[in-house]
Design goal:
Blueprint: H1 9-18, H2 29-37, H3 40-44, H4 46-80
């Protein structure tokens, strides 16, 4: 099963790092995809790699929600001054 290309470059870079692979300088999305697909980990346990990407995306969503919450609290505090 091929790895989807609808991931953001930052997500692919994070996945490559988590997989312990070396990121080429100025790597393009397609290069990152090929690097992932050619890795032993991907060939041996594709489900693990997909789960790893799901976790990366979930962490990113959580981080965005936390930033929104902090911004909202800051705005409320600023309005009350």
């Amino acid at each position: 099963m091929a790895f989807k290309l609808n991931y953001k470059k930052t997500e692919l870079i994070r996945l490559v790092e988590e997989m312990g692979l070396e990121i080429p300088v100025e790597a393009k999305v397609i290069q990152l995809k090929n690097l992932i697909e050619s890795s032993n980990l991907y060939r041996d346990d594709i489900d693990f790699v997909h789960e790893l990407m799901s976790n990366i995306q979930e962490e990113k969503r959580d981080e965005i929600e936390l930033q929104k919450l902090k911004l909202s609290q800051f705005e409320k505090k600023s309005l009350s001054l």
